[in-house]
Amino acid sequence: MSIRGLKKKQPKTFKVKIVTVDAEMEFSCEMKWKGKDLFDLVCRALGLRETWFFGLQYTVKGMCTWLKMDKKVLDQEIPKEDPVSFHFLAKFYPEKVEEELLQEITQHLFFLQVKKQILDEEIYCSPEATVLLASYAVQAKYGDYDPNFHEPGFLAHDELLPKRVLRQYQLTAEMWEEKITAWYAEHRGIARDEAEMNYLKIAQDLEMYGVNYFPIAQNKNHTDLLLGVDAKGIHIYSINNRFSPNKSFEWSAIRNISYSEKELTIKPLDKKAEVFKFFSSQLKVNKLILQLCIGNHDLFMRRRKVDSIEIQQMKAQAREEKARKKMENQRLAREKQLREEAERAKEELERRLFQLEDEARQANEALLRSQEAAELLAEKAQIAEEEAKLLAQNAAEAEQERQRLEITALKTKEEKRLMEQKMREAELIAVKLVKESDRRAKEAEHLKQDLHEAREAERKAKQKLLEITRLNYPHMVKYPQYLPTDTRDANFDKGSIKLDLKDIDLKRLSFEIERERLDYLEKSRKFEDRLKELKSEIHALKLEEKQSGLCS
Asked: What is the CATH number of domain 13-90?
């Protein structure tokens, strides 16, 4: 047998492109593969074990269809393209995401798909809830918020809110980012898988979550209703209201679902209840509705049964994985906390070092300023010392001047006292002189009177003598020199004696009056001289007092 014969014939293949929510993959698919073979290949590539939620979707003639698992890939109405494109998406949704989504990859794929549906407005969400969901999406992508790293504008290239919400409110991108960041900062310490799970737990409560809508009609001519299929059952909506169903059929209350051409029939479990019939636009829609109903019903019944060994093992592994991740997250959180504390301690030490360096610099500057101030103070001290000496000298001179002024004041006081005393003496002398002058005037008046009386007596005596002479010696009257001396002497002894005495008194009196007058004149002259001296001294003292007042 030849070597060529030993080689197995290579099977024929075709290329397939698988598009997930966040990635693309290409595979070589054998011509004979069924849909399940390709699906299992993709699941193995993704590491996905919870395969019952997902399917491969493709679009043909504008309608989205799911690849059938039990038929060959090439036998189905797939697009005629190379490579053939399929979208790996969640086909069925869990009732409770936290209990049913066991693997992290399953959770992540659901998170990405639901987030895209909300952003594309396939699932309606209120503006407040969209901001909260966006904050969990940011936490899942960027981790814990760090104001030093996540500076304003770091969300500029991320699509986080539906365009409807952005149009509804007149807010700038910076304002939306501020609102999202405010919530984002509160999610500190939440791991990526926890953030994604929190996102899904909020999203699963939205009215349009997990619902596949199809237009239907109660008759063949009108399409005025919507039929919704989800994990809990079948719901009938009005064409303009996808939130509140007009009628619902839970999976547990449905006995049978069948279609015939475009007609679809829902038979309730209660045989007495009315059978619901409706019409779709085409047969393929009925087939797709039936396919989704069967899959959701199977999962609904499966959730209410005891878990299979595989599911139990997966749940145990999921619990162990969660516990391990929790411990790992706690360890990482502890390490992160310690690292942050170390960084804070480092920053504190660096800050303290910088502060100490700054304090040292300030201290050096203060020392230099102190030295400069000390030199300046030394100069000022020297100047102050010189000024103190000058002031001391001035003080000494002032003290001398003060003493001189005191002495001058004392002298002035003494001189003033002497002047006052001299003035009093001058006044006394003046008074005495006045009295003396009055007394002298009186004495002079008396003397004049006595002199007048004496002269009058002399005149009278001479007259009497002449009379006597005429009577006794008439011939001798004309010639008195011829009278006998003895006669004259004898006859006029008494009169002569008396006359001599009168003459002597008159001369003495005249002499005394003249002497008194001369003495009075002399004293008056001396008194006037003394008064002039006193006036000169008083005038000199007044000049000295004025000069002293000006100097002070």
From this structure: 3.10.20.90
Both tokens assigned to 515: 């002497």
Region of residue 259 (left: phi > 0; alpha: psi -120 to 50; beta: else):
beta
| Residue 69, marked binder | yes
Is 91 assigned a ligand-binding role in the annotation? no
pLDDT in tens, 381-393: 778 778 778 877 8
Asked whether the beta carbons of 11 and 31 are under 8 A apart, the reply is: yes
> What is the domain partition of the chain in residue ranges?
13-90, 104-204, 212-305, 355-471
| Token code pair at residue 476 | 């001798």
Pairwise CA distance, residues 191 & 187, whole Å: 9
Is residue 155 within 8 Å of residue 180, measured between CB atoms? Answer: yes
Q: What's the burial of 120, exposed, middle or buried (CB within 10 Å: 0-12/13-18/19+)?
A: exposed
User: For residue 24, what are the β-bridge partners?
Assistant: 19
State the amino acid at position 325 in one-letter form. Answer: K
Q: What is the DSSP letter of 67?
A: P
Task: Tell me: is residue 71 an annotated ligand-binding position.
Answer: yes
Cα–Cα distance for residue pair 426/434, rounded to 1 Å: 12
Please compute the mean of the pLDDT values over residues 455-484 and round it to a whole number: 63
Q: Is 301 annotated as a binding residue?
A: no
Q: What is the DSSP string of 418-452?
A: HHHHHHHHHHHHHHHHHHHHHHHHHHHHHHHHHHH
pLDDT at residue 495 is higher than 70: no
The DSSP secondary-structure symbol of 217 reads: B
- Say how far apart CA 28 and CA 23 lie, in whole Å: 17
Q: Is this prediction's pTM over 0.70?
A: no
Min mean pLDDT across 48-52, 95-99, 306-310 is at 306-310
**CA–CA gap between residue 53 and residue 391 (Å, rounded):** 108
25 CB burial (10 A radius; 0-12, 13-18, 19+): middle
Return the higher-pLDDT residue of 519 and 250. 250
Tell me if 1 is assigned to a ligand binding site. no
212-305: CATH topology is: PH-domain like (2.30.29)
Q: How large is the average pLDDT for residues 97-108?
A: 92
CATH 1.20.80.10: does it fit domain 104-204?
Answer: yes
Q: What average pLDDT score do residues 266-295 get?
A: 87
- Out of 35-44, 88-97, 520-529, which region has the weakest mean confidence (pLDDT)? 520-529
The per-residue pLDDT for 321 is: 81
Q: Give the pair of three-digit tokens for residue 398.
A: 């002032």
pLDDT digits (tens, 9 = 90+) for 138-174: 999 998 898 888 889 899 899 999 999 999 888 899 9
Q: How far is CA 533 from the centre of its chain?
A: 89
| The two structure tokens encoding residue 293 | 């109903």
Residue 134, classified by CB atoms within 10 Å of its CB into exposed (0-12), middle (13-18) or buried (19+), is buried
Q: Which of 426, 450, 440 is nearest to 507 (CA)?
A: 450
Q: Are 55 and 66 in contact (CB under 8 A)?
A: yes
Distance of CA 485 to the CA centre of its chain: 151
Q: Which residue has the tokens 């201290």?
A: 363
